[in-house]
């Protein structure tokens, strides 16, 4: 049995789960510092659980123990590829990347079923209750993001951070991923540069 993960929660500052997924890479714009916090399939499951993206059958620790190592590796790699495709499709306008999201979305739909739920009353995609479930749930949100209005998609103005988000500020002038993190650090940096110049 794997120990439950106790590491810091994944960031949720993006305003859309598919961009929160992109933000599982820290310091994306500085290859010497970049940290990928989705290190394996256990992280993928933990991420889906934290975001409330998939039914418990797909986010439960039991799924991990029931998944053969080779399948876990395959699913982890596929999710990372999907994450990078979201980034490239939104921020680099890559058609190849958008095609990958489209393929994953079509595959996810073909293996999911619409199920009625109440409160809120809606029909909801029920992804496969197996190791492909997390990838399917992620493909659904990736497609939702790509086909939504992307005019407010932004990347943090920090040189290295690379976190992305939807700017929903009233004046459309949010330039930092978080005011307390990159905003504050860059304010201090500017202040120090002024004092020493
Ligand atoms: Zn930032």
UniProtKB/TrEMBL annotation:
Domain Zinc finger CGNR intervals: 154-195
TM spans (from-to): none
Pfam family, one: zf-CGNR
Protein name according to UniProt: CGNR zinc finger domain-containing protein
